[in-house]
Amino acid sequence: MYAVVFGKNPKLSKAEFWAFTRRFGLRARAIENSENWLIFECNRRIEHLFHKLGGSLKLIKIIGKGEEAINEFKYSKHFTISFYGKEDWKLWRKMGSKIKKNFKEEGSSKFFKPRNVYSMPSELILKGFPETKDFTFLFGNELYVGETLMIADPFELKKLDVGRPRQRAILSIPPRLARIMINLSEKREGNFLDPFCGVGTIVQEFLLQGLNAYGSDINPKILEAARQNIKWLRKEFGLKRNAHLEVCDAKRLQKCFRTKFDAIITEPYLGKPLKHFPSRSEAMRMAKELDHFYYPVFEGFAKVLKRNGRVVFVFPAYKLEDGKIYRRDRKWLKKLDFEVLAKYTDFEPRHRVVRDIHVLRYRG
């Protein structure tokens, strides 16, 4: 039995997790759901696949239920405790003391106690004390006790973002979201294209996952930046595969690529940065104007996608002046033989433009 702890957008992370299980042929069954974590059984071990998840922070092996399950913990010289679903500082300290007492016969141990928080940051395990064990307590309908097996590496994600030679700080998609979008496609292998690749964030992830990577951008200078980043990535991560990059208008992809694609994963131009939260009428106008651009883009997609190919595409939605979110219903997608399978939003509270992620199937 396993558990995963989700990141800052748990709804999107949970959707990604289930798409991930289908993508890799895992038969997983939910045991207990929470907003921020999921306990599940799986027919296969998934430790070797966890790094392909973008929205999950921890993979936990469930050892048992109830406080008595701490007797099953194996000795560790250094350990910490993570609580999920309950904030009880006294209980947190009590569990730590009991575990330390159980370990006493095998040797001394150190219980790390961070101030005013209930879960130790991943830096403790990933950096300063790699031998540290993280014992977890998940409070739902029952208390599930486990041990952290793997943690998403924030240093690798940072390296893929700001460690590469060429960057576009405001305009680039975060590497974690690129990873999430690939999983949402549910395509495990084949030809993958980002037709608005910019400096190459999504194409980088194609290569890291061993996929046939293609990218294009209408701006030659930006595409050259992507080439530099791909060259750096291959050297830094020891990758043998390379990406096929072309200067190309996304409306005319069939003139640039002779291959057919299993999936298109992309974040296009989302409009000009906004200086204020728009009114509903302003948001409707901006979305309608951008649809005049997106329509021929999807016509171009239809010419290069395989039948039943997937598209994971970021449309703009808008956070309005009244705090609500405006999401345009694009009925024209059906006219072009694209079926909307799912839609998810991703944004920070300060954002005026919201990522409206669509997962689509091409039925042409």
List the helices and strands and how they pair.
Layout: E1 2-6, H1 10-23, E2 28-33, E3 37-42, E4 56-65, E5 78-84, H2 89-103, E6 110-111, H3 123-128, E7 133-139, E8 143-151, H4 154-162, H5 175-185, E9 191-194, H6 201-208, E10 212-217, H7 220-237, E11 244-247, E12 261-266, H8 280-304, E13 305-319, E14 325-326, H9 332-335, E15 338-346, E16 353-362
Parallel strand pairs: 5-6, 5-7, 9-10, 9-12, 10-11, 12-13
Antiparallel strand pairs: 1-3, 1-4, 2-3, 4-8, 7-8, 13-14, 13-16, 15-16
Helix pairs in contact: 1-5, 5-6, 6-7
Model description:
With about 375 residues, the chain is α/β, with parallel strands linked by helices. It has two domains: about 150 residues, VC0802-like, CATH 3.30.2130; about 210 residues, Vaccinia Virus protein VP39 (Rossmann fold, 3-Layer(aba) Sandwich). The chain has nine helices and 16 strands. The strands form two sheets. Strands 2-3-1-4-8-7-5-6 form an eight-stranded mixed sheet.
